[in-house]
Structures are given as structure tokens and as C-alpha cells.
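Progress note, project year one: complex with magnesium ion.
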Amino acid sequence: MTKLLEVNGICKSFAVSPAPGQKSQRLQAVDDVSFSMLPGETLGLVGESGCGKSTLAKLLMGLLEPDRGAVHFQGLPLSGLSRRQRRPLLRKVQMIFQDPYASLNPRMNVEAILSEPYIIHNRPQDAGQGVQQLLDAVGLPQEARFRFPHEFSGGQRQRIGIARALALKPDLIIADEPVSALDLSIQAQILDLLRELQQQYQLSYLLISHDLSVIRELCQRVAVMYLGRLVEIAPVSDFFHRPRHPYSEMLLKALPIADPRHPQHALPAGEIPSALAPPAGCSFHPRCPYREQECQTSAPALTSLGNDHFAACHVAEKLFLDGLST
Ligand SMILES: Nc1ncnc2c1ncn2[C@@H]1O[C@H](COP(=O)(O)OP(=O)(O)OP(=O)(O)O)[C@@H](O)[C@H]1O
Ligand SMILES: [Mg+2]
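Model obtained:
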């Protein structure tokens, strides 16, 4: 089967304005990340704030160019193409954002918001019928088209954002914290909608969330990021029962209620080191209860542990870490 997405060793750093009298610095937001996705798959991406999740999403959307490495979508490279060559490819990858308030233009009514993708992609003739179908698909009434974003609740606004992402019939939707700004009961409704749409349109999702219970509910596999690097990637059930990276264990231990209907924000103990001055060796070693000498000097590569489970940890083979008991 052709891979939907193939990411090979991508890196992205940003220049950071120096403090007075100091040399300018670069912050490594995404550091040598590789993974792939199959068509129809839902992959979760978790990690603490600032670990590089949104930067990775922008690299996959073609909104940022990687410093190194390559992204292939359905076998075609995203880099090195002209804007015109890239356009049909990028149409197949769409994004849903965390904050439906900020991501919708307040001056445009829903009809204009949902027609825009058709107009940008030179298919204005498809907009009329398209908008009608999109409203049906996301469970909004037809009269919604004449109303403006501020006239809707948060959950309804997220439905508008989802409809806009669906307009051009994408194959992959990157959802960056799609429910974290919503009330719990509304979160469940939006997750149900995402699941229904996935079946209806054969979508793949890359679901970014720092909420492991959302990941557990929707994803087949989960990838864990720490300070710009992927530290674990595994099938969801395996991951929750037997995580193989100490950081993942820490995230799971911070999940007090093992019930996907009660999402919690996972916040492990200890300070996150700065991405500007990452620790030597394994960047997790200062917080790791299992660290050994080697961990302080050499950075572990993401290594197969069998059964489609990968972890970047020198001591992973020896450890029996705690997962969730239920
Ligand atoms: N345009 C930019 N210029 C400079 N630094 C940036 C830029 N974009 C992101 N960063 C930095 O890169 C790092 C990764 O940011 P990113 O937004 O990808 O994290 P994140 O995992 O999405 O966090 P959150 O969970 O808070 O959304 C952070 O330290 C951030 O400050
Ligand atoms: Mg983010």
C-alpha cells in the first residue's frame, strides 16, 4: 500500500532574538523527526506545550519549509515544488485549529467562509452545492449560511471549521487541539463527529492533543514528542498498557482517571528543559528516574521493540513501565 505520508528526518529551527549583549541563538523546534502514516489511519501526537507539535504540523502542511529532511505525501515530495505544482497536493491535507474563535474571519458569514476554499482552488461553480452538503455533513442547519461566527457557540464554530477543512475532499486532516477549547460535553460531540466523518469520507487524521484520553478514544497509533524529538510511537492499546519510554510512563501516571469520557491534562513532574539549551545525551535524562551513565552523553535513536512499537531510550529493553490498569 502506498504510504499516505512519509516523514524522513525533518528538522526545523527558529532564530530567537538574543538578550542584550548575547549571541543570537537558534531554537530547535523539530529535531530529526521520522514517521509514516497509512491511508485511513488516525495517528495521535502528544507532548507538553512547546515540544514542537504545531511546528511539525506546519511542516506537514507545507506552511513551513524544513531545514533538513523531506515530507512525501502519497509518494510525492512536498519540498522542491513550485507553488503551482504544490497546490493540488496541499488541497489533500487540511487543518482544523484549536480555537474556532480565532480561525474564522468574523466579517465573513458562513456561506462566504465555506465558499472560500472552492474559490481559492478555482472551482467557484461547486461552492453552492458544496456549502449545502458541508452544512449537512457537520450537523448545522442550512440557515446557518447567512449567520456570522459570533452568532454561534464554540462547538458550532468548531463544526464550521471542520466543514471548511472538508470542502476540498482532503485525504488527511491535521487537527491541532481540536477540542481543548471546548466544554467537556461538547468535546465528546465533536469527537463523535470527527469519527463519523472519518468513516463517511475515508479520512486520515493526525490528531494533536496534550490530552491522552482524547488520543485513546480516537487513534490507532500514538506518537510522543519531547523537546522536538519523537521519543515513542506505538499502537494505542500497547502504548496505554505498556509504554516503553519513561516520559510516556510519566504522562500516563499524570492521567488520574482512566476513563476517556473524563479528559485530563497530563502534566508530568519536573521542569521541561529549554529547547534553546537542551540537555546533552537523551534530552529527557534530567527528569528520568531510570537514567544511566550513557543517557547523559549519547542521544538514543528511535528503535524498534517489535510489534510496531518504537522508543528512543537506551534502557527501554530492560524496563517494565507502568501503563494504565484498565
Ligand atoms: N515562528 C517561530 N519563531 C520562533 N520560535 C517559534 C516559532 N514557532 C514556534 N516557536 C518555538 O518552537 C517551539 C515549539 O513550538 P510549537 O508551537 O510547535 O509547540 P507545541 O508543541 O505546538 O506547543 P503547544 O502545546 O503550546 O501548542 C516553542 O519553543 C516555540 O516557542
Ligand atoms: Mg501547538
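The first strand starts at residue 5 and ends at 16.
The CA atoms of residues 183 and 269 lie 26 Å apart.
No further modelling is planned for this target in the current period.
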